[in-house]
Write a structure and sequence with these properties.
The longest helix is centred in the N-terminal third of the chain and has 17 residues. This protein has 2 domains: 113 residues, no CATH class; 148 residues, 3-Layer(aba) Sandwich (Rossmann fold), CATH 3.40.50. It contains 12 helices and 8 strands.
């Protein structure tokens, strides 16, 4: 299966390890990726009006011309591109404004897919399990979905927004233990970091604290902003609240890569802020 690959800004900058592990894992699983030519930013967290959605729509037009559906690893980008597609398919003023802004007559022909969706539902958990070379038996992980991977259900249709299962089932398919996690779909507070750092760090701290109390070896995520909050901000949270966490935060592609027997450099594990060395399997 082949897709037009939309990395978005995060994966070409602060989330290089997500890009690296995505490319490595997709190669093994037979998912062909052709990066969208001349792609642009999706609009980040400001996809609230038709003109902003037109940024995402332009990328969909490029994919349409390439004759491919779009595969997106970043949950923020996935959400924005999906919102744009939905707005166009619904018609009305939003569709008119978007098409005028991009100078095209796009009708929503392209499908927008999250990488997690493709791996769990197209590749399938049974095949994924068969590809495992280094079973993660004994490794305990909590699944963290955050907000935009599974909500709103109108645009994120591959999992239940109230009782999501995709990350849980994927972790189990790799042979690891998936721990029940109350904070799995709570907001990390990333979008509040600039306006209310204290509140934002408290939200992230609560997520990390529960994972630590459960005895997790790592947290598995699908969103670069969530990863940045849980990984990069972890040391600040430890200092602020005088607690020790030391909990690796893995993109789900990195966890898959470990089970597939891929190397540390190939998966970008050396780029994570919290050391992942204790997660290595022989």
């Amino acid at each position: 299966m082949n897709f037009a690959y939309y990395p978005g800004c995060y994966l070409h900058a602060s989330a290089r390890e997500y890009d690296m592990s995505t490319m490595a894992v997709c190669k093994v699983l037979g998912i062909g990726l052709s990066e969208l030519e001349d792609w642009n930013c999706c609009g980040a967290l400001e996809a609230s009006n038709p003109l902003t959605l037109s940024l995402s729509a332009r990328n969909l037009v490029i994919a349409k011309k390439e004759g491919l559906d779009v595969l997106v690893p970043c949950s923020i980008c996935f959400n924005n591109l999906s919102r744009a597609n939905s707005a166009i398919r619904e018609g009305g003023i939003a569709k008119t404004v978007i098409n005028e802004a991009i100078g095209e007559s796009y009708q929503g022909e392209v499908e927008v897919r999250h990488l997690l969706d493709v791996i769990v539902n197209d590749i399938g958990l049974e095949k994924l399990s068969k590809e495992v070379k280094v079973p993660l038996k004994g490794l305990k992980s909590v699944p963290y979905y955050g907000c935009l991977t599974i909500r709103p259900s109108k645009v994120s249709k591959f999992d239940d927004p109230d009782t999501p299962r995709s990350l849980d089932d994927m972790i189990k398919a790799l042979g690891a233990d998936c721990l029940p996690f109350k904070h799995k779909k709570d907001c990390c507070g990333g979008n509040l970091l600039m306006s209310s750092e204290e509140f934002s760090l408290k939200m992230t701290g609560d997520i990390l604290s529960e994972a630590k109390e459960l005895g997790a070896d790592c947290v598995t995520v699908a969103c670069p902003l969530c990863h940045a909050m849980l990984d990069y901000q972890q040391s600040k949270i430890e200092s602020k609240y005088d607690i020790a966490i030391d909990l690796p935060i893995l993109y789900f592609t990195q966890l898959i890569g470990l089970a597939l027997g891929l190397g540390e450099k190939e998966l970008g594990l050396d780029k994570n802020f919290v050391s992942t060395i204790k997660l290595r399997r022989e």
